[in-house]
Amino acid sequence: MSIDPQHVQPSTGEYMTVSEYFQLDYTAPYSKYEYLDGVIRLMSGGSREHDQIAYNMRMTLDQNFRTGPCFVQGSDLRVQVSPSRYVYPDVTVSCDVADRRRGNTLIRSPRIVVEVLSPSTEKVDRIDKLKAYQACPTIQEIVLISQFAPYVEVYRRDSEKGDEWRHVSYAAGQEVVLESVDVHFPLEDLYRGIDFDEPLAE
């Protein structure tokens, strides 16, 4: 498809080329789209809990990256996981100095990607994006965080079998371990500011 500035905003499921996808930065500057193998997906807003958990994860990781090459980014920065796949994880860790250069707008060497699961996006996160993340050679760990219960899953690339992944889960009272950056922290750190006993807003 060709992008017309007067064209209505593209919707989830439309097909386009990579170059057309990047034109959306100019034709739809106030919307964020992900791109998986020719298909776009319009990013939706999240809940307060979703935002709080993503923030807590960023702050927890950032405290461990005061020195060294690794750094953490939020969902505003686009991540390339292949030449035909561009996404916006809730949190991304890169340890590549090229990704840290001033003015950079695209992470090309993610090491860890984090998704806070939402009812509207969990299927995509668990199937389409998980598959894309596992195919990216630089990604070593994929973190999926529940926003409705203290529960975290980590998919970890087997260092001895590069194409195989191990799955571990963490619940309340446990420490989350991210082996690829030698970081561990109490799971409760991710849920600061959230009261699971409080009724959900209708």
Kindly describe this structure.
- The protein folds into two domains: 1-43, no CATH class; 48-191, tt1808, chain A (Alpha-Beta Complex).
- It has helices at residues 18-27, 48-63, 122-135, and strands at residues 33-36, 39-42, 71-73, 78-82, 85-87, 91-94, 106-107, 110-116, 141-145, 151-158, 161-171, 175-178, 183-186.
- 28% of the residues are buried.
- It starts with 17 loop residues before the first helix and ends in a 16-residue tail after the last strand.
- The mean pLDDT is 91.
- It is built from three helices and 13 strands.
- It is α+β, with helices and mostly antiparallel strands and 202 residues long.
- The strands form three sheets. A six-stranded mixed β-sheet has the order 3-6-8-9-10-11, with helices on both faces. The protein has a five-stranded mixed β-sheet with strand order 2-1-5-4-7. A two-stranded antiparallel ribbon has the order 12-13.
